[in-house]
Q: What sequence folds into this?
């Protein structure tokens, strides 16, 4: 046999399954022998290491000497451990259920829930009445204070101011007196037939010491102490107190800090342009509040406009040199470059 | 239990007057070998101890069946191989086997020295090669590993292995051949 062994034949020789000729060749041929040894040697070392590990393991494993357990106790130790573990878990879960089912525990838990969710109504900030701003007043310079009475119809236009004492009992063109107040305003209602100032205590008919028609101590055809066709203190129509309107001794607030509004994604896609008009009250500190959209644009631009204006900072409007809350409208332009 | 054992344990002859009378002697004689084989198979000392004990308990209970053609060593190894197979199949300790995988093969390769005559370089190379074979043996399938260990760690003959595993000789050869191919590939890869 002169031919060298194939690698397969060499493996067969190693296994002990090679034919006698091949075995002999492997012993005699130096090349084949070397190739076989390259695997046989590591395998021999492997065998030695297995024996070593066995001896080493034996040394520690049975250090107490040979103990041959013939009872079934030693069998399936792991199985018993598993069953034991299962029983312990079942007992623990059962205990939890038992505790849960206990009436006293349930009662305690229920009470705790009541404690967890206390009534926080008293902590909530009181809802402020919407100060709509403006006001009005009038009178005919009567020496008497304005008399008590109901308010006329609320409208957005005024042709004739309300009068408690009619100076023209027989007009040629009868117009219903009105006050310029938002229709949803929370006006004081007085159950009387005659017109007058609902907050007055005087029952003697009078238009009050004010001027320019209307009722009360103010001027310009409203009811109350203000200046304009509205009700109550304040300026320029609408109702009582709150923010002033610009003009008539009230200076306009100045923008100090401005944030440009962002375009909304939809509006950008639609290439939508326009102007959002916002109603805003600039308070004494120059912060905008009570923002409302007067003229909406849609596509999320209204919200973007509000978000931007909320960050603005103003020099507050002033009346008689003192900063006051002033209502204003702001136009926010959205233009695509 | 007895019936289950009888199917696992083939009848084996009693040799030299019988380990029946001298079970303790049988135990002393074969325990290292059985333990070694199981340890190399499952690679966990705890499991190997348990399985070795189990093996002898089963052997003791079924000692009446020690009749037949094979030796007691073959018979015990048969029980051990079956126990290892059951242990593998149960998969119950898979996680722990993985976690403790390194505790046997690395420690075995760690303080084991192939030959004191060799140079440090040669020892290092030899250790690396042995470690490779351990790793390959770990990756083998259950049957392949059993056959591989019986042949190359226990030096058993093919026919004996066939008797232990209940396979035909040709099947044993095939398994060995495939295992050796993997070993050779691993060794060649290391040689590069």
A:
């Amino acid at each position: 046999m002169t031919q060298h062994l194939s690698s397969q034949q060499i493996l067969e020789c190693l296994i002990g399954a090679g034919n006698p000729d091949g075995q002999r060749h492997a012993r005699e041929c130096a090349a084949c022998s070397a190739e076989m040894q390259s695997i046989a040697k590591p395998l021999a070392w492997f065998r030695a290491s297995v024996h070593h590990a066995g001896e080493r393991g034996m040394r520690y494993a049975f250090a107490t000497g040979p103990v041959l357990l013939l009872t079934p106790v030693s069998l399936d130790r792991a199985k018993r451990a598993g069953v034991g573990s299962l029983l312990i878990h079942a007992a623990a879960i059962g205990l939890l259920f038992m505790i849960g089912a206990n009436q006293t525990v349930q009662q305690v838990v229920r009470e705790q829930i009541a404690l967890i969710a206390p009534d926080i109504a008293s902590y909530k900030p009181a809802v402020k009445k919407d100060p709509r701003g403006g006001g009005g007043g009038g009178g005919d310079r009567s020496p008497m204070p304005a008399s008590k009475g109901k308010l006329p119809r609320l409208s957005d236009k005024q042709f004739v101011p309300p009068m408690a004492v009619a100076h023209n009992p027989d007009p040629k063109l009868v117009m219903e007196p009105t006050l310029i107040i938002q229709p949803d305003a929370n006006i004081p209602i007085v159950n009387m037939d005659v017109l007058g100032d609902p907050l007055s205590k005087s029952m003697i008919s009078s238009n009050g010491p004010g001027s320019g028609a209307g009722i009360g101590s103010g001027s310009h055809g409203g009811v109350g102490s203000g200046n304009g066709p509205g009700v109550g203190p304040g300026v320029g129509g609408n109702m009582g107190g709150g923010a002033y309107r610009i003009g008539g001794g009230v200076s306009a607030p100045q923008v100090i800090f401005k944030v440009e509004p962002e375009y909304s994604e939809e509006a950008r896609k639609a290439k939508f342009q326009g102007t959002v008009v916002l109603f805003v009250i600039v308070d004494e500190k120059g912060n905008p509040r009570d923002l409302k959209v007067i003229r909406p644009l849609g596509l999320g631009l209204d919200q973007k406009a509000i978000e931007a204006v909320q960050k603005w900072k103003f020099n507050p409007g002033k009346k008689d040199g003192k900063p006051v809350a002033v209502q204003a409208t702001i136009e926010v332009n959205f233009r695509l470059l | 239990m007895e019936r289950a054992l009888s199917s696992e344990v083939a009848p084996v002859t009693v040799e030299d007057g019988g380990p029946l009378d001298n079970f303790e002697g049988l135990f002393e004689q074969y325990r290292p070998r059985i333990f070694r084989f199981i340890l190399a198979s499952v690679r966990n000392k705890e499991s190997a101890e348990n399985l070795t004990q189990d093996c002898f308990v089963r052997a003791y209970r079924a000692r009446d069946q020690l009749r037949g053609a094979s030796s007691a060593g073959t018979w015990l190894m048969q029980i051990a191989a079956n126990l290892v197979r059951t242990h593998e199949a149960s998969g119950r300790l898979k996680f722990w086997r993985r976690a403790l995988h390194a505790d046997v093969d690395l420690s075995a390769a760690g303080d084991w020295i192939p030959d004191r005559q060799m140079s440090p370089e040669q020892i290092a190379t030899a250790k690396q090669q042995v470690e490779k074979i351990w790793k390959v043996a770990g990756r083998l399938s259950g049957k392949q590993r059993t056959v591989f260990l019986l042949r190359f760690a226990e030096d058993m003959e093919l026919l004996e292995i066939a008797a232990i595993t209940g396979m035909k000789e040709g099947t044993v050869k095939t398994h060995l051949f495939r295992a050796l191919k993997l070993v050779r590939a691993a060794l060649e890869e290391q040689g590069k």
Remarks:
- Residues 169-191 of chain B form the longest helix (23 residues).
